[in-house]
Here is the input.
Amino acid sequence: MSIMEKQIKQGTVGVVGLGSMGLGSALALVDAGFDVVGFDVNAAAVEKLQAGGGRTVASPSAVAREANIVLVVVVNSDQVDQVVFGESGLAETLAPGGLIIQCTTVAPSYVRQLDEKLAERELGLLDAPISGGSVKARQGELSVMGSGSKACFAQADEVLKTVAAKVYELGDKAGIGSSMKLVNQSLAGVHIAAAAEAMALGIHMGLDPDTVYEVITHSAGNSWMFENRVPHILNGDYTPHSAVDIFVKDLGIVHSTGRELTLPLPIASTALQQFTAASAAGHGREDDSAVIKVYEHLSGLKLPTASKD
Here is the structure.
């Protein structure tokens, strides 16, 4: 299918941020017949989008010249500010009536301010954080926790249906979607940290790690994160699908939001300290299951290795 045929079929969509989830979503859009134009500072990510049938340009503003709907899938609010309002940012060239689908995990207070700034430029915003990881992103099966106007949801409908299996319309104001994502990230981070601690306990007591996994995944102590992340530990494979440093950031936002609300969040704060310790020990860019390596450093715990059959 030629680029022109794709444009006729679905239209052009921009994706800024071609990390594991942004790239997966971009390729899912290509597969569905969209003309996808992307940007990332990482040359390898750019090449992967090109190899998958997408196009790339030299800046976010160049993306916005070609697409009136742009997904922003970057790391944090500083990067969102840079790609939207920085030099050669989206806001320079995105035409009035254009829509930014903001998928990054950020503080609800931040995204409310972002919405106000974009409204002044006659640009729409969907507060649309995503969940599901790199695999579901590539399959177009993410969960979107969205909030924004009915008009913005209507404008984004075909794009959202392509990248997500579940699109939750949580309200008509920016900040609601990001609030829900913080609930999710609090639980996800706590569950990963708890799964790591439980596995460390079992291994330290001399239990076979594979047997621990088998028993717990068929018992009341199981969780989705235990079932999904512990195999990484069992295989000694910490290739990042979602990195330790992501939870340092996300649980940091949870902690800061709790402080804004004068709401103590001691369990999330403890999990944050575990991820921070793992990052400080040099594991920040490893898979988030590498939080178990805190126990390796503290107690000499012998973890399964990648050479295990």
